[in-house]
Design goal:
This protein has 77 residues and is mainly alpha-helical. It has one domain. It has three helices and no strands. 4% of the residues are buried.
Length: 77
Amino acid sequence: HFFGNSINAVKAQIWTAVCTYLLVLIAIRHHRLPVSPQIFLHLVETNIFEKITLDQLVANAILHDPEAPDSNQLILF
């Protein structure tokens, strides 16, 4: 969602998005996390008030990954 249509509002929103993306990349690289930026942002967004470290958050997500392939499920393509 955009919060304004003026030039300054659009520039502020673009800079905020760029800074957020760079901070996410720095956090992923610093902690050597095996997740994409999109998954990392989703994890942080859904667990924002949890009092655990980023490493624990990602480890829990990997353990409980609903998209992990089932050994009984055949791959179509």
